[in-house]
Structure formats: structure tokens, C-alpha cells
Write a structure and sequence with these properties.
Blueprint: H1 6-26, H2 39-46, H3 50-62, E1 66-68, E2 74-76, H4 81-84, E3 85-90, H5 101-117, E4 120-125, H6 134-144, E5 150-154, H7 159-166, E6 173-178, E7 187-191, H8 193-206, E8 212-216, H9 218-221, H10 228-236, E9 245-247, H11 255-263, E10 274-277, H12 283-293, E11 302-309, E12 320-326, H13 327-344, E13 351-353, E14 356-357, H14 358-362, H15 373-377, H16 380-385
Helix pairs in contact: 1-3, 5-13, 8-10, 11-12
Amino acid sequence: MKKLRRGRRDEIASKTIADDIRRQCLRGEWEPGKRVPLRNDLILKYGASATTVQQAVDQLVADGLLDVRGPAGTFVANPPPYLTNIALVFPSRRNDFNWRYFYDSLASAAAFQQRELHKKIIIYCCPTDSAVTDDLERLRDDMLNLRLGGLIYSITGVQQDLMKWRSKFDTPLVAIGLKHRLPLDQSVVALSYDSFFSRAIEFLAQRGRRRIALILHPGLYFQMEEGFIDREAARHGVEIRTMWRQLVGAGTPVCARGITHLLMNGPPADRPDGLIVSDDNMAGHALLGIQDSGIRLGADVDVILHTNFPSASPIAYSGVIQLGFDAKTILNAGVNLIETWRTKGAPPESVCVPAVFAHELLGEMKQDTVGNEQADRMSYQEAAAAGPA
């Protein structure tokens, strides 16, 4: 067996001591604000050299777990990073081809929510198509050194790596996804698209719309319960023909323009008078398709656009209604799941977040929140420019 150099042995020993202290903090043996044992006591406890123990302490100070207070000694940080730092992980970088408005909404909500949640939310962009990135290395290092108290990530993210790294300190993982796709050994904030479609269809039916078309993300469509759309259509007395259910991939939102044009290209009695767009990245393109068809928003057709709030693509027209998910609610649910996990020591049950209308978040009573001067000035081209080409 190959012998390790003295320096290498000391490095491994210092990491072992640091990890043991981290575990003692997690178990509550070293509480926040508590003075840690003297260096000589640590040397005796671990049977290590003064240099090795000092290296371990220095690393924990650098990680923010310990706090040196001069002559008063060294204390456990109050609060320590594992009680304050939450990772928010996106599976792509901003301006990448597969970046989504949803990530913008979560990032915006995180910036406003940190003070209210008494947490520091740290964003990591870790594209799934890259073997190694700076953010991925930083995330790995932060997880393995207990600088994070939990992690919230898209269910399409770097799940295998996260599961491997979290095992060292049983870091709570919370995935954001659909209720039909629940990973094991994790908590999930499930976005209820059942409520999205149910509320959208009901809303259009109440507006007197009887022929409704859908533009759907394929991944969402194939996760839906079989027959759900048909049952909702029957319940509200509307028609949703098979040919009016069109799929547009997340990577090609521009296709929503031509598809919407085709859907609306027919005689008034035989074309949809209501449209539901289930992905906000397609919103501007779908509105351009309506413009191309020459029909009038609000008069000939009402449109419900999926929107994540706070919206990264504000669109306001008469006849356009925004319905989607509140990023603030999603983050609050994720942080609460992490806190519950920490308290109970095991993954808690998942939380389902329902869809909400824009006017509900704003506290308005009107069903239609548009028609102001800004909306009147906004053009179809401006709406489409808000989305990726």
C-alpha cells in the first residue's frame, strides 16, 4: 500500500476533524453561539498535532461555521450557515437557449424574500449539458462543507450529483416540479397544472366562450391524467377538439406563432373563441399569431396566458388574462419544507401549489386586469420581444 506524504496525511486528518465538528454542530452538541473547546482540548480529543487542529479550525472559520472573537475565544457562529443559507439551483444559465421565464420569476422572488424569510438564498446555475461549470463546482464544495442548509432546484436539474453530495450531511433537497413526477427521498413543491387548466377553462366558460384551444408543452401534456381535459370540458359545457390541442416544445416557442395563426384561421363559427397558452415563454409568439390571423382580442377571442409571478414578460391587453404560479409562494413552501426536514430529520410530505390569477395576487376584484394606458400603448411586437426567438 502506497504511503501518504506527511503533508497529505495532515490534510486528510484536518478534513476529518472539520467534518466531525460539523456533525457535532448539526446534532446540536455544539449549539450556535457556544464557545468551542480550547485548542489543547481539541488536540487531546483527536490525537492530532496542533498544526492539524488549527488547519481544521481555520477551515471552519472560512466556511462561516466558527467565529473567532479575539481573546474571548472561538465560538459557533450564531446563526451558522446551515441555518441561514439556502441554495436555489437552475439547470441552465441566463441567456442560454433553454433559460425559462420561470427561473427569472424565482430569482426575482428570491431577491425580495430573503429578508422576510431570514435566509440567504444563493443562486447556482448548473446546466445539465455541461460536465463541469464554476457554479457546479461551487455548489459541490458548499454542500460537502455544510455551507448550505438546504437546496431548492428544478426537477430537471443535476439530480444524480445532488443525491450523491447531499448524503454527507443529509442535506434537505426540495424539487420544484409536477405532482405526477415525485423523486424519492426528497420533498417536492408540486405545481398543480390541474388547477391551472381547470380554472382557465372555467374562466373562459364564464366569459361565454364555448370553443377552446390549447397550446401545450409536450412534457406537461404527457404528464396529465388521461381524460382530464375532456372531463373539464364536459363539466363546463365547452368544446375542446383534439385538433385544437397543439404541442409546442420549450426550445422552440416561436412555433406558437404559426400554430396560433392556423388555429384562428377559419370561419367564426368553426374556430376557437378561447385560447389557453400553458407556457409563458410562448406567450408573445402566440399573440403575434392572433395578430397574423386578423381576429380581435377580447371581441373574437379571449386568451389565458400562463404566467409566473412576478412576471418576467408583462403582457396587458383587453381579452388577455394571466394565470399561473406565484414564485413567492413556491419559495416559501420550499423553505418551510427544508425547515420541517431539519426539525423531523426526514423528508416531510410534499406541498401542492395551485394556480392563481394576476388580479388575485394584486387584490383586485375585476376579472379582467387590463385596459390601462400602458396596455393600450403596448404592441404585439413588444410582447413577442419579451420572449426568446
